[in-house]
Design brief:
By secondary structure, the protein is mainly α. The protein has four helices and two strands, in the order ααβαβα.
């Protein structure tokens, strides 16, 4: 009885349901295609950003390598100059401190003790223990040669420290430029 009553409405209801199902399917397809399109757009955007980043990194690496070579070359040249100057000064010690000075003037033992303590980093004893005024076996030319060598070594170390500082500043600046960071 209810079915008989609904029979005239079944075809229109079925038609409406078919239209609704078709619209739902169509909306699903449109939504899915839009979602897929959005995902593809994001993937393309990501790929483009990644390619740009890789290009920036490669450029930064090239600049860093060039800077390393330049800094290392300057350091090697500086060390060569320092070593040449040290060797030259060592050869000149006998000219500026002749053998007559070595024979006539012996360095006091106290001076040698102070120099040796400073060179080794060891403290001096609480009391000198012996005469600090007595002549030592160390000549003035030996002391001059040791001092020239010590200063030469110090200048090499200074150059190394300054080179590391220059390297750090250069690499930091390249990194900041590559990544877009501000110092």
């Amino acid at each position: 009885m209810i079915i008989a009553f609904l029979r005239p409405y079944l075809k229109p209801i079925a038609g409406v349901l078919l239209v609704l199902a078709t619209l739902a399917a169509l909306l699903f397809v449109v939504h899915h295609k839009g979602y897929q399109s959005g995902v593809k757009a994001k993937e393309a955007e990501y790929a483009e950003a990644l390619a740009k980043a890789e290009k920036r990194v490669k450029g930064g690496e090239k600049r860093a390598d060039a800077a390393n070579t330049s800094i290392a070359t300057k350091h090697v040249q500086t060390v060569e100059k320092i070593r040449w100057r040290t060797e030259t000064l060592t050869k000149e010690v006998t000219v500026y401190v002749p053998q007559t000075v070595d024979r006539e003037f012996r360095l006091p033992d106290g001076l040698v003790r102070v120099h040796d303590a400073a060179a080794s980093g060891a403290p001096l004893p609480a009391a000198p223990g012996g005469s600090v005024e007595e002549p030592s076996d160390v000549t003035a030319s030996q002391l001059a040669t040791a001092i020239v060598g010590n200063y030469g070594t110090c200048h090499v170390w200074e150059s190394e420290a300054l080179t590391w500082r220059a390297w750090y500043v250069t690499q930091r600046d390249i990194y900041n430029a590559t990544t877009g960071r501000k110092p």
